[in-house]
Amino acid sequence: MKPGLKVTLEIEKKADYGYFLTDGESTILLHNSEIIEDISDREEVLVYLYVDHEERLAATMKMPKITEEVYDWVEVVDVVSGRGVYVDVGLSKDALVATEHLPPFESIWPKAGDKLYCMMKVTKYGRMFAKPAPEDVIKELFQPADQSLMNKELTGTVYRLIASGSFVISEEGIRGFIHPSQRKEEPRLGEQLKARVIAIKDDSSVNLSLLPRKQDSMSTDAEQIISYLRTRNGAMPFSDKSDPEDIKERFQMSKGAFKRALGHLMKQGKVRQEGSWTYEITKEK
C-alpha cells in the first residue's frame, strides 16, 4: 500500500477511534473523522490512501477532487510567501501549488477564495502537489462565443497570465483576453471577475475590458475597433471607404457608426488611415 491509491480493503477490527483495515499483508487505520457513511455492517470498504499530519500512512473514505488524470476547479485556502499556495482537494490535507507554477510576482498570486483548474501528483512520501492545467487541457472547456454577447458582461476566472495580458474563462466556458490597456491593474491568477465583451474574435473567443464604459471618452464602437486592431498586430483592411456589408459582418455596426468611431479615434491620435487600411498609432515609451 502506498499514498495516492484508491483501494478496497477488508475491515479487520473496530476500535474506539476507527477501524483497522487490511489488504492481507499490511494494516492501516481508518480514523472516525475519515468515515463519511456507516460501514458497521460491511466486510470491505473503498478508501483513499494518504499520509496524515503525523506523517503516517492512513486511509480515508473521502476522495480527492483531482488526480493525475482528473482536472477540476479547486479553491485556494492558504498562501505561503516564497513557497506557493495551498488548494483544497477534498481531503483532510491540502495540496501545494509550488512557486514554479505561479506568476513571478507574489502580488498577482492567487489569494484565499480564488480558484485554479488543476491536477494533482502524489509523491512516494505522500506529499501532494497540484499543478494548473496547460492551455491544451483547459481548452476542452471552451465554448464558442455568440455575437449576442457583444457589450455584455461575463463572469469568469483568470486562468493564465502572460506579459501581453490575462486569459479568462467564463462560467459558460467562453475564452476571453484582457489587454493591459483594458485594465487599471493586473488581475490575480485565479481571480474571479466581471468584464465587458468589447470584441468577438474569429476563433469565437472574446476580448474583454475591466474599464468603465467610454473610458477616456472612447465609445464602445471605438473600443471594438481598437480591440480588433490589436488582434491583428495594429493593422486592419478596413477604413471609412470600406463596403457597408463588410463592416456590418465584421463589426456588427453600420457604416455610419463605424465612420464616427473611426473619426473619433483619428482625432484622438489613436489610429491613422493609409488607402483602404487602418493602423493603430502606438506611442513610444
TrEMBL record:
A GO term for molecular function: nucleic acid binding
Listed Gene3D superfamilies: Nucleic acid-binding proteins, Winged helix-like DNA-binding domain superfamily/Winged helix DNA-binding domain
InterPro entries, per the entry: CvfB_fam, CvfB_S1_2nd, CvfB_S1_3rd, CvfB_S1_st, CvfB_WH, NA-bd_OB-fold, S1_domain, WH-like_DNA-bd_sf
All residue ranges annotated as the S1 motif domain in the record: 151-211
Superkingdom of source: Bacteria
Family classification: Belongs to the CvfB family.
PANTHER family tied to this protein: CONSERVED VIRULENCE FACTOR B
The protein's name in its UniProt record: S1 motif domain-containing protein
